[in-house]
Amino acid sequence: MKNAKSRKIKIILILMTGLIAFLVVTFLIFKDNLANLFLNKNELYIREQIETVSDITSHHISVKDIRMYHTTDADKLTDEQVATATNVLYLITNDDLQIHIDDSTHCYEYFTDNGFGSPQNDHRYYAMSEVYYFSGTRSLFDKYNLTNTANADYEIHTFETDKTDSLERSRDIYLQMDYKEITDFSLWKIKLFS
């Protein structure tokens, strides 16, 4: 009787272990699809930027803090209308590498007078810019392969510093410049799907 009970317990434990292993493997296989399902647009954007930084550094990035700011601006000039959307993202890794990402999109619409007193939309022009700033010590730059930043795919700048307070200072600076702080993201969900 005792032998039969212990055999049932072993079978249940083996089945539970197999089920957990199956769920973990399934999660890893379908992680990107699940991320699109469970993450909001800001979390997807941050996840994409973390993947880009991982590509730049050839090193997995583990983030401990995030700040994100956004602004839009529209100007009407004489013969063109300009709209700009800017995202500023600050990431701090677990070992205090500071990453500042400026992501801007500019849209220009050019108008000409069609002779009837109403403007005619000639064409639109879009310009996108992503600039990556890395701040940290020389040993962090060596660890993340940032000593040679001649990467043609990205605009990269490095600043050697021992200070780790840029995240705290950034909030005041960007809020004074009428940026909106974006807070509807979850760090643990971003870490889970990164």
Describe the structure.
Keywords: Membrane, Transmembrane, Transmembrane helix. The chain crosses the membrane at residues 12-30. With 194 residues, the chain is of the alpha+beta class. The chain folds into two domains: 1-38; 40-193, no CATH class. It has helices at residues 2-29, 31-38, 41-57, 138-143, 166-176, 187-193, and strands at 63-76, 80-93, 98-113, 119-136, 155-160, 180-182. A six-stranded mixed sheet has the order 5-4-3-2-1-6, with helices on both faces. Strand 2 and strand 3 (98-113) form a beta hairpin. 16% of the residues are buried. The mean pLDDT is 82.
Question: Which structural class is indicated by helix and strand composition?
Answer: alpha+beta
Q: What is the count of structural domains? A: 2
Q: Specify the helix fraction band.
A: 25-40%
Uncertain parts: none
- Count the strands? 6
Strand content: 35-45%
Major sheet description: 6 strands, mixed
- With helices defined by DSSP (H or I, 4 residues minimum), what is the helix count? 6
Please list the strands of the largest sheet in the order they lie side by side: 5-4-3-2-1-6
Q: What series of H and E elements makes up the topology?
A: HHHEEEEHEHEH
**CA-based shape:** elongated
Summarize the structure.
It contains 6 helices and 6 strands; from the N terminus they run αααββββαβαβα. It has helices at residues 2-29, 31-38, 41-57, 138-143, 166-176, 187-193, and strands at 63-76, 80-93, 98-113, 119-136, 155-160, 180-182.
